[in-house]
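Request: Give me one sample?
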Amino acid sequence: MDWKPVQQNRWLIVLGLAGVACLLAGTWWQGSSRLPAAAPAMTRADTGGQGAAGTGAGGAGSLISYQSQLEQRLTQMLRRIAGIHDVSVMVTLDSTEQLQVATQERTTTQRQNGGQGSSSSQTVDKQVFVEHTADGAEVPFVVRKDTPTVRGVLVTVAADDFYVAKSEIVDAVSHVLDVPAYKISVAPEQANGE
């Protein structure tokens, strides 16, 4: 093997190895403390009104704030695409946030044999696990939080080339929100004179 090209570009190899080391150090340093950016923070006060059914809805205020947060972040990112001058985004959500609480289920079966025949009955006892907060309140122990699913996205855009912008917007939104392209609608914005 000829080592002359490798020795001449030795600084490129060192720079590449330093870049790989920085990438590995960055993933190790942040580790599991990284949370998904689209997931809103939920306090313990939001879970207080959940029933024992196992799932519950967040509130209408929580849903609207999540929806507006998605719209604002998408608008900010889409405005950065080259050739796009102005953009407006509307996101519709399919359902509210679902919570699954920890439960313990106990089944009791009783059988009775009488003179005429036998009968059996089954009783199901379901208890919700609760945890105590610092102020002494009892709240259900949440096992899983499912964020609302996106039903559709409408984007209006003022761009140099509408069709190129439409293609880039559909691609970006479908990848960011994991929404199929047929649920994304992109329309040109009206000019001010119209």
